[in-house]
Amino acid sequence: MQATPLDFEKPVVELEARIQEMKKLSAGGKVSLQPEIAALEEKLAQLRHELYSGLTPWQRVQLARHPQRPYTLDYIRATMTDFVELHGDRLYGDDKALIGGMAKLDGRPVMVLGHQKGRDTKENLMRNFGSAHPEGYRKALRLMRLAAKFHLPLLIFIDTPGAYPGIGAEERGQAHSIAYNLREMVQVAVPILCMVIGEGGSGGALGIGIGDRICVLENAYYSVISPEGCAAILWKDRKRAPEAAAALQMTAKDLLRLGLIDEIIEEPLGGAHRDPELLARRLKETMLRFLQEMAAMTPEALLRRRYDRFRKIGVYEEQRPLEPTA
Question: CA-to-CA distance for 175 and 152, rounded, in angstroms?
Answer without folding.
Answer: 27
